[in-house]
Structure formats: C-alpha cells, structure tokens
Amino acid sequence: MNDAKIRVGVLGARGRMGTEVCDAVTGAGDMELVATIDDGDGFDPLATAQVVVDFTTPDSVLGNIDWCLEHGVHMVIGTSGFTTERIELVRDRLATRPDLGIVIAPNFAVGAVLLMEFAAKAARHFESVEIVEMHHPKKIDAPSGTALRTAQIIAEARAEAGLGAVPDATKEELAGARGSDVEGVRVHAIRATGLVAHQEVLFGTAGETLTLRHDSYDRASFMPGVLLAVRSVLSRPGLTVGLGSLLG
Fold first, then answer.
1. For the chain, is the Cβ count within 10 Å smaller at the N or the C terminus?
2. pTM of the complete model beyond 0.85
3. Binding of NAD(+): at which residues (predicted)?
4. Catalytic residue annotation
5. Which fold has domain 110-217?
C-alpha cells in the first residue's frame, strides 16, 4: 500500500453513481481504492480508508456517518435527502469529532454548482422564481437534492433582500399541480426515460424573465467534483455543504 495516496472507500459501490466513483478513484493517480461496500457487505474493509464516499440512500446515510465518525474516517456524501434539519444533525454529530471533515454536496457537477451561485445572485432581483428538475425514472427521491438546495439558497437570498412571498393567485388546483413548496419556492419534478440530471430555474419580474439551466448527460460529469471533494476534505475539518467553497 502506498501511503502517499489517499485511501478511499466507496459506500453504494455497485449503484450507478458508486460504480462511476470506483472507476474515477481507480483512475486517479493520487488515490487508492481500498474498499467497495454495498448492501449486505460488512463495513470492516472501510477501516483502512482515510475518506469514504457515500452514494447510498437517505435511510442509511446517517448510520453510515455514525460509523465513519466512530472509526475516524472523513466522508464525502452525495446521497440525497439532506434537509436543513438533517444537515444540523450531521453538524451536531461532528462536534464530537472536530478532527474529521464531512463534505455534503447535492450535486458534484461544476456547472450545477455554478448554477446555484448564479441563482443566488439573480434571486435578489426578481419577483418570481420556480424550479423544474428533470431526472431518469430510477431516481428514488423527489425533488432532487440539488433542487432542494437551490430552493434553500434562493429563499435565503430573497430573505436577505427583503423580498416577500412569490406572487401566486392559485386558489384551486389538482394535488401536486403547483409542485412542492420548499421555503416559499415552488419545485417541480419530472421523471422520464432518457434523462440523466437536469435543472432549470425560472425567474420573472415586470417585462422580463431569466432562465438558468444545467444539463448532465453522463454521470462522468460528476466525477471531477467528487475527486475534488476527496482531496479537499482531509484538510477541512467540520462540515462543508456544497462544492462552492472548494472551487475557489
């Protein structure tokens, strides 16, 4: 074993994203893949890892975090389902291990991260905003973690700018017709064969609209961000949410 390389384990290794992560880590010259874990596998091989990359399920990720903290392993998490409340739970858990770092990223594609930053800037200047996220039909959560995080960022920016509620005179609707309300931002989820991961943010104000859109056509688009997070987390104790602060 070459100690100069970052020793990486992958949780959810046989899933669609996990398989890509394993290939990316194997191809990275400064990393060594030391453990690949999926349903039914024991966690013991992860004890040799410095960093664990987690692409599992919302039901299992908190337990995975507890195991890694107990065994002194840093984490990079791409699993969906991290609400504001869940993020605070992770922050509380990390307080017991201030030497360890966890990066939680709703999206590892650089373009998606930039879209969220652009959306935060635009949100201060537009009266209306809605989000449409589009994914493959095998995705188990809706809305996507990316859409949830984008909505949260937009809501924070609107609050800082002193904007009120988004105008909407709807009084009658079929259930779900107006999407989900995430901190005052409507989010619509589409699932269709042929899609991978796509998001639009539509802003509107008197006389103009602005549409921001990001498309991932292949899961390989997420791998540079995953590898960046693995390299960064070793020197970032505490909780990092999103890749924005890692991009410089």
1. C
2. no
3. 12-17, 38, 78-80, 105-108
4. 135, 139
5. Dihydrodipicolinate Reductase; domain 2 (3.30.360)
